[in-house]
Amino acid sequence: MRQAHEGQHVLDFMNWQLGGGPIGGMLDLNHWFMEARAWSVSSYMAEALGMKSFGAGGGRRFEVWNTRWEAADRETYRSRGVSTILEAKQHTFCKFTLPP
Q1: pLDDT tens track of the chain, all 100 residues?
Q2: pTM of the predicted structure, to 2 decimals
Q3: Core-most of 24, 26, 51, 67, by most CB within 10 Å?
Q4: What share of the chain is helix, strand, coil (3-state, %, to 5)?
């Protein structure tokens, strides 16, 4: 899972670099947006790999994937989990690491 998450960061950086390192515009992604993209990729990979659940740790509110979610609610819960992780990461006392 770490490879998918970090791979998204690499892809975002490469696109930014290939675009000339623009300041502003669609390729100039801020840290929040890059983390949101990477956690979303992690969520979809967990789903594709058939994992029961996946998140940043720290309980169910930090989950970005859970097989128990109803199909109609998955995107809502996925987005909520990503947002919760990113909001918590803004505080220096919160340290999250990706499980292997």
Answers
A1: 888 888 988 888 888 777 777 676 666 677 778 889 899 999 999 999 999 999 988 788 899 999 999 999 999 999 999 999 988 877 544 455 555 5
A2: 0.76
A3: 51
A4: 55, 5, 35
